[in-house]
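User: Before I run my own analysis I want an independent prediction to cross-check against. Here's the chain; please return only the structure tokens and, at the end, one sentence I can use as a sanity check.
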Amino acid sequence: MKAIALTRYLPISNPESLMDVEIDKPTPTGRDLLVKVEAIGVNPVDTKVRAPKDKVEDTPRVLGWDASGVVEAVGPDVTLFNVGDPVFYAGSITRPGTNSEFHLVDERIVGVKPQSLDFSHAAALPLTTITAWEALFARLGVSAQGHDAGKSVLIVGGAGGVGSIGIQLAKKVAKLKVIATASRPESAKWATQLGADHIVDHFGDMPKQLKDAGFEQVDYVLIFNDTDKHFPAAAAVIAPQGGICSIVENNKPIPVELLKAKSAAFHWEFMFTRSMFGTPDMLEQHKLLTEVARLIDAGTVKTTLGRDLGKINATNLREAHRLLEEGRAIGKLVLTGF
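Assistant: Structure tokens:
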């Protein structure tokens, strides 16, 4: 089958950083689905895993974690899906990725594709949606039933993939007041269209901008961009007994002592945790994606696709990685069809 893979970890400008290859088609066992991939989403984690390093793979390594497609075959223990079902999911970081014609994935982290979306628009959603949902509802404990309506959240990185869905979940599902950060007119417009009540520039003085907008403090902060840079500002604006959640790894110690006087909490969110460790609650991601599909089909939440870069091949995938590494992508990047 066709796939895009690497054997060496190279700068994205090198044509061998991602290559078109032919590999064997896998066979499902246990609770695995074999999915015929129709579209893929590309995420910052893809570029981080591919980043240059002194390592050589003995066999081609396939990256990629977002996908939508159709169930081609099922393992003997599968109970949630049937052959022919349209699905969307984010896969496991410990297994071969979705940048291939056919892909194996545990059914417990898969959802039925929203009926109202084509494969391209569906592929833009899983990884970022799971991340934002878990950060907001599982880590920070915000009510998904709207019981925290009226509370405030600052979303750092509002126009990115996770921010784009995070704004919608916070506004449309949790009923929060949403302040999103954006540094360009086009990204500010995107975040506003998705439901942000206020926009602040993360390159400026965020505490001052929040105060000027009428917020002395906020109940929650979601850091979807540069934890090292933005944690001090988050700590300054978080309300006593509030919560901060980040999805971006730090490069230096995080000064969590800034939170002590406020008894504020700090959480990490990593959407691969359940699949990586095979946690007993893996099925929660199936339930999560099922609920998100319902919200999309009901018109409550919409896809965050920013740009479709064309066919699934090495040339287009390298372009997606390049755009993400520049840090200027709005919404999600997808590729569709082999």
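Sanity check: Residues 2 and 281 are 33 Å apart (CA to CA).
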